[in-house]
Each structure stands twice: as C-alpha cells, then as structure tokens.
C-alpha cells in the first residue's frame, strides 16, 4: 500500500517521496531564537527538530500588523521561512468540480463585519469569557499588575465593539477587526453522493480523493491522508463511524437515566451487581447494541457529536485551527470530513506511563503560544474545545513550526446547551481525555459543600473555559517534562490524583514557567487564568520581549453559533440521496440477489414461475444507474457478483412489499443515480469474498434506505419482523485481513461495559475523547 501511495502521489500530485513520507521529515537545521539564554537543546526523541526561526509566530500576523505586536528586532528582521508563509500554508482554492456527482456548493459561511470604531474603555471592552469570583490580583489594573499570570484581559486601545443592541443578551460584546484569513476562502463543499472504489492494486479512492496512509485513529474516527487527484492537493480525510457515535449517545442517555433514577431515589436496593434485573446490564447492552445498529432507536440527538463538530469546523477561521474543505456523507454508516492536512503530526506522542524527551522551554514556548492563539479565538467565540491534548495539536507543515488544533468533536458552544440541574461537578457528561481533564469534571466522592469549600464547585454555564485552561496546562506540562502531570493505571486513582494531588513540577523548570504551570493547573477553576490574560504572561512573552500578536487581531473573525438547522444539516444526510446512492451500490455489489429472491416470492404468490430478467426487476425497483466515471466502469466493483447468497435467500418482508406494490422510483431519480459505496464497503467487497459479506451490508442498508424513504414507520419496527434482516458487515465478525478498524472501539463490549460506561482506556489510556463516564457508586 505504501509504495503504491507514493506512486499515486507522484503521478497525480507531483509530491515527491519525501512529502509522502510526511511523518518522518528531514527538517532543516534549527535556527535558534535571538536570546542566547533560550538556546534550543537537542530535539526530543521521535520528533524532528523544530525550525526555530525567530518569528515563528510571525506567519500569523497580517502585513498591516501594528508595530507594538511585532516580535523583537532580531526576530522581525529575520526572513520568514517559506514553509510558514501564509500563502504557503493556505490550502489552494479547489477548481470547480467535474459534474460527476451531485455537489451542493455553499457560499462562505463566515461573516466579516466592519464596525465603525467606537472608542471604549479597554478594560470593559472584552470581558473575560467566564466570570470568576474576585481574587486579590483582580483588583489590580492590568497595566499595574506585576502578577506572573494577570487575571484580566489585556488592554486593547484599538478595540471596538458591535452595537450592543444587535447583541444577544447571552453573548458578551466582542471586538471586530478584519483579520486576513490564513485559510483563504471559507467556502466548502457538501457532497451528497459519493463513490468509493478500491482498485486491484489496492489503491482506494473516494470521489476524486485518492486515499493514502492512516494518519491517526480516534475514539470514533479514522483519519487518512487523501490527495485530490484533480488538483494534487493533499488533505486529511476523517471517516466518522456513525455507529460508534450512536453507541456513545446511547451510553450517555443511559447514564443520565440512571443518574435521574438515583436522584429520584429509584434504582437503589437492586442488590449487588449493579444493573441486574430490569433496566440493568442485560437491557443496557441491548439498548446500546440497538442504538449502534439502528439510527432510529437512539433518539434525535444520536449524531450530535459529529454534527456539532462539523458545524463548528465549518465556521471557524483561524490560522491555528484546522479548517474543513469538504463534507461527504457516504452512507448511513459513515461520514467523511475532508480537512486541511497537518503533515507534521502531533506535537508530542505521549502514551500513558511513557516518558519522552521533552522540548526545551523555548521550543515549548513557541508551540504553546500557538495553542493559546487558537484557544483564545475559540473562547472569544464562546466555543470550548474540551479535548485539548498533544494528540490534537498538530504541526501543519513538515518543518514542524506551525501548530493547528484539530478535533472539535467534543467542542460545544459555551452557552448551549445550558447544563441541566443534574450537571453538577462530577456528574457532568465528561468529554475529553482523562489525563488532560480538569479536576472539576471528574467524578468525586465528596459532598457538594466540601467541593464548594475547596473551590471545585462549578457555576452553571461556566464550566468549560477553565477546563480548557487546565488542559492547556497539562499539555504544556507534557511538552516541557515529557510526561503527563498525573499518571495511574487505574482511572479512579488517576481521577483522585488529578483532583487532590499537587502537581509535581521538576526543579529544572524556570521560575516564570513554574508560575505559569502552577496557575494553569490550579485545582480550583476560579484560580486559573483566563486565556486572554495569558497575553501578558512573562514566560509566554519572554519577559515582554516577544509579545503575543494583537489579541484583537487574533479574534477578529467573527463567527456565529451554528443554528440548530446548520447542525442538522452539517452532514448532508438526505434520505433521498441515500436511497439513490444505495440503489446504485446495490447494483454494483451484486445485490440483485435480493431482487431475484423477491421475484421468486412474487412468482410464488402469483402462482406462476416468472422468469423475468434481473434487469427488469432492477428497473422495477427504480435502480437505474448511470455510470459516468471511468473508475467505476473499470473498477471490479462495477462488475456485480451475481452469485446467489445464502443470507439473501430470505427476503425482507418490506422489500417484498415494495415490489408487490409495484412501486417505482421517480424517473428523475433514475436519471441522476450515482454509484455510492463507503470506503469500508469498497474494501469489504475485496477482502470479504463470501456471498454473505457481499450481500449483507449495503444490500440491507440500501433496502433500509428505500424503506426509510417511503415507510419510515415500518422501518422502525423492522427489528420486530419475524424474519430477521441479515447482519450488516459491521455486525459480522471481521476477517483478519480486513484493512479497516475503528480505533479499538468496534463493538460495544470493547468500548463500554454492560452498564453503559465507556471504558477510559481505548487509546492507550489517555485518549478517549467524547467518551462518557459514570460516577462511581
Ligand atoms: N487534519 C489532520 N491532519 C493530520 N492528521 C490528523 C488530522 N486530524 C486528525 N489527525 C490525526 O488523527 C488522529 C485522530 O483524529 P481525531 O483526534 O480528530 O479523531 P477523534 O476520533 O475525534 O479523536 P478523539 O478520540 O481524540 O476524540 C489525531 O490524533 C491526529 O494524529
């Protein structure tokens, strides 16, 4: 696969073997910063040397950047490294796609407002994203403050605000400045139909994207490199497993139900063996399995995680946040997000219990500043990341200088939804990775008043910003020490340590950094600094000799909270197009077996031995297919396997009904049908050669979608059908040579226990983003 990827890349993209092997680049020798005290030491193990060109953060600065925020003289005189120039970093604008699939183009979703300057008091211009109880340091003005981590927003003489009347009462005033977008146009494409193929040479592609190496795996998604064969541009393609998301959503629903039961005094006295009996483990497993298998059983919010991620990513526009290029909804089971590629990989690869060579303080500072810039932008726009960790902070360039945050999977806009009455500390639905998780989010055996006394109690609606600050602190700690701030194999012990133990900062750490780490990792959220207040942090600014870029410029691109409709439509999951796609897939995957079976049933019912051709049956089902892609014509997938299938010999009652009713699809649809297979469908077509595997997955999903369109009610009750539907490929045991897997979370048993608790240690113990935890009983 790897050599073929290289050949493909060379052929289509003009990218040399070096670029294809993006994970092990040979970076140029580091150029050290101006200050001799901060000379970079040997770069850490496994990490190519950073290019420490002094103006590392300069690429984010627009040309018109005010002198007050320029880097030091030394730095500003140094030329920008070519790899980090804004032009080099901006993804090129994709050409108009060929009319090969249905494509809906949306206009840019980011609005830029130009507001007439209105001088205001800088101290009130941009209130902190969360209001903390007053502390002694708050009483000082920021200018006069000598605190190492000032508590107030930096003064901003140029700040202007919107007309307060136009503001939602729930949203604080914000500054509006034009900032040139590093990501260029924020327009993106939503592709309703798609096809995936795998050639005999093993090269897979989705639409015009040729897939390459796996870049990473998360809790519910796999990320692979993809080359646009039309433009040669490289992207990262994130394939979500909706099935996994449904499991997470169902587990969360169960957890909340149990919590409510406990609060109402129910659910106690069931005896030992939690979850036994009615509503217990057995039924929990059933519910989770059902949720995973059937999109309709898990309730209306079952895909909220991915939809929210997509909706947010479509809207953000910041040089330190990875942007979205295209969204493709391939099948009812998978969705694809085409993202900006971050070729340099994670800023630190650190597994639980491991220790790696740390960055020098100066290296860490240059990286951390960029995280702060990205998070400040999110917080300013009332978005909480909630899963900040080194795995989600990637170098976008091979020179490993420019950092971008990915994975907004657990981001939520700060004020929606409001935490429910049950969302008290320790009972919150916890998203993020345990090792980087703030103490107030973790389960505790302590009573509420004890927590209040310790400052660990959260105020409603003000949960997340300080949680991000903690995660930033844990990430910084990992960068400069090469290990996690708290480590334990047992998650409960890990939680205890995070909540109670003081963080152990090595004596080698400089005083300013120690101060910063101590404040970021303060147990009480109210004692942590706000992100904007970091603008004047001595360590981050190298004692003010290397100031942060202007805060106002950094947050100048205003984004609006995605509406419910935008979240709903984040993925173009239209039943109609799903039907069209699936009926095409049916043809190409030998699904005419089902038609043959139905024909027999029909004949039996009619008392005749019909010998109608398969094609006639296909037409009757409205399965006309136009193949206009050379790939599809030449692909083996376009040669249907018509062998009878053992599992398809049992007709679906509903599909028989459809056929008996003589339904036809509208002619227009027949004209526009495209072939559509998911990556895994295409792959399984070649790796699972048994008739069962050929007929099981998309066949049934195609039938499901057909039913969905016309008989949603019947669809929902199909699990009660006396004749069970054949299992989809995802339900069937995977063959050993099946190339795809889902981050170790394919089955509910792997992801969560019978009580519906998602296990913490799915990714080496530290990465379980978006997982749901249950407080210990
Ligand atoms: N744009 C990108 N470019 C390069 N690699 C990426 C990109 N996005 C993600 N990755 C890699 O893929 C991995 C998994 O991606 P991601 O974190 O988005 O998945 P996830 O399922 O949301 O993970 P999590 O479990 O943290 O929620 C990342 O840790 C990273 O190494």
From TrEMBL:
Biased composition annotated in UniProt, kind: Polar residues: 670-696
Pfam families: Pkinase
Enzyme active site: 387 (proton acceptor)
InterPro entries according to UniProt: Aur-like, Kinase-like_dom_sf, Prot_kinase_dom, Protein_kinase_ATP_BS
UniProt domain Protein kinase: residue ranges: 209-540
Stretch list, region Disordered: 15-92, 115-188, 257-285, 603-777
Comp. bias regions, Low complexity: 132-151, 644-656
Residue stretches of biased makeup (Pro residues): 116-131
PROSITE patterns associated with the record: PROTEIN_KINASE_ATP, PROTEIN_KINASE_DOM
Name recorded for this polypeptide: Calcium/calmodulin-dependent protein kinase kinase
Organism of derivation: Rhodotorula toruloides (strain NP11) (Yeast)
Lineage of producing organism: Eukaryota, Fungi, Dikarya, Basidiomycota, Pucciniomycotina
């Amino acid at each position: 696969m790897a050599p073929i990827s290289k050949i493909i890349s060379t052929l289509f993209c003009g990218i040399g073997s070096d670029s294809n092997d993006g994970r092990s680049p040979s970076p140029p020798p580091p150029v050290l910063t101006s200050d001799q005290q901060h000379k970079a030491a040997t770069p850490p193990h496994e990490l190519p040397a950073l290019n420490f060109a002094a103006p590392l953060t300069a690429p984010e600065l627009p040309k018109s950047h005010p002198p007050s925020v320029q880097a030091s003289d030394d730095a500003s005189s140094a030329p920008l490294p070519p790899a980090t120039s804004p032009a080099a970093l901006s993804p090129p604008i994709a050409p108009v796609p060929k009319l090969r699939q249905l494509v809906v183009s949306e206009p840019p979703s980011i609005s830029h407002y130009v507001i007439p300057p209105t001088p205001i008091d800088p101290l009130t211009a941009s209130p902190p994203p969360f209001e903390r109880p007053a502390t002694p340091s708050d009483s000082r003005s920021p200018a006069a403050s000598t605190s190492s981590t000032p508590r107030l927003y930096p003064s901003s003489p140029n700040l202007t605000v919107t007309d307060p009347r136009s503001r939602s009462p729930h949203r604080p005033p914000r500054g509006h400045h034009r900032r040139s977008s590093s990501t260029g146009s924020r327009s993106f494409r939503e592709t309703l139909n798609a096809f995936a193929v795998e050639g005999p040479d093993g090269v897979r592609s989705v639409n015009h994207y040729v897939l390459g190496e796996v870049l990473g795996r998360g809790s519910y998604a796999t990320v692979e490199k993809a080359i646009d064969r039309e433009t040669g541009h490289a992207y990262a393609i994130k394939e979500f497993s909706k099935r996994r998301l449904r499991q997470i959503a169902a587990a969360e629903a169960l957890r909340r139900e149990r919590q409510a039961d406990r609060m109402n005094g129910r659910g106690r006295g069931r005896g030992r063996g939690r979850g036994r009996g009615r509503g217990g483990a057995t039924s929990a497993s059933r519910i989770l399995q059902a949720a995973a298998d059937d999109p309709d059983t898990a309730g209306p919010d079952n895909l909220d995680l991915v939809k929210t991620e997509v909706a947010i990513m479509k809207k953000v526009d910041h040089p330190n946040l990875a942007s979205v290029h295209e969204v493709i909804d391939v099948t009812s089971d998978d969705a694809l997000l085409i993202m900006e590629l971050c070729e340099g990989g994670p800023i630190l690869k650190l597994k639980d219990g491991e220790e790696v060579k740390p960055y020098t303080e100066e290296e860490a500072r240059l990286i951390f500043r960029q995280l702060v810039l990205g998070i400040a932008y999110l917080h300013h726009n009332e978005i909480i990341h909630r899963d900040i960790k080194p795995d989600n902070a990637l170098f976008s360039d091979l020179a490993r200088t420019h950092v971008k945050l990915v994975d907004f999977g657990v981001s939520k806009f700060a004020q929606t939804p409001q935490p429910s009455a049950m969302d008290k500390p320790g009972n919150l639905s916890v998203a993020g990775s345990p090792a980087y998780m703030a103490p107030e989010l973790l389960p505790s055996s302590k009573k509420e008043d004890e927590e209040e006394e310790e400052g660990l109690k959260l105020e409603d609606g003000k949960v997340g910003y300080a949680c991000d600050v903690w995660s930033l602190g844990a990430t910084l700690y990992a960068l400069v020490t090469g290990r996690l701030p708290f480590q334990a194999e047992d998650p409960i012990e890990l939680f205890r340590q995070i909540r109670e133990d003081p963080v152990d900062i090595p004596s080698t750490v400089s005083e300013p950094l120690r101060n910063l780490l101590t404040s970021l990792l303060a147990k009480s959220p109210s004692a942590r600094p706000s992100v904007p207040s970091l603008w004047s942090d001595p360590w981050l600014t190298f004692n003010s000799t290397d100031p942060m870029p202007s805060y106002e410029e950094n947050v100048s691109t205003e984004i609006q909270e995605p509406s419910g409709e935008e979240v709903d439509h984040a993925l173009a999951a239209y039943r109609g197009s799903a039907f069209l796609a699936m009926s095409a897939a049916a043809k190409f995957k030998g699904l005419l077996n089902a038609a043959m079976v139905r024909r027999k049933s029909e004949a039996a019912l009619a008392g005749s031995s019909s010998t109608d051709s398969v094609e006639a049956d296909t037409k009757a089902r409205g399965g006309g297919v136009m193949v206009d892609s050379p790939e599809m014509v030449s692909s083996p997938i376009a040669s249907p396997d018509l062998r009878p299938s053992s599992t398809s010999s049992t007709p679906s009652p509903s599909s028989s009904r459809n056929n008996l009713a003589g339904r036809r699809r509208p002619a227009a649809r027949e004209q526009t049908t495209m072939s559509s297979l998911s990556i895994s469908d295409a792959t399984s077509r070649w790796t699972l050669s048994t008739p069962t595997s050929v007929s099981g997955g998309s066949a049934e999903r195609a039938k499901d979608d057909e039913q969905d369109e016309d008989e949603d009610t019947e669809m929902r009750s199909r699990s009660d059908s006396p004749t069970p539907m054949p299992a989809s490929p995802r339900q069937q045991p995977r063959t050993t040579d099946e190339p795809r897997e889902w981050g170790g979370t394919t089955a509910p048993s792997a992801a969560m226990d019978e009580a519906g608790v998602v296990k913490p240690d799915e990714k080496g113990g530290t990465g379980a983003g978006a997982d749901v935890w249950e407080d210990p009983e």
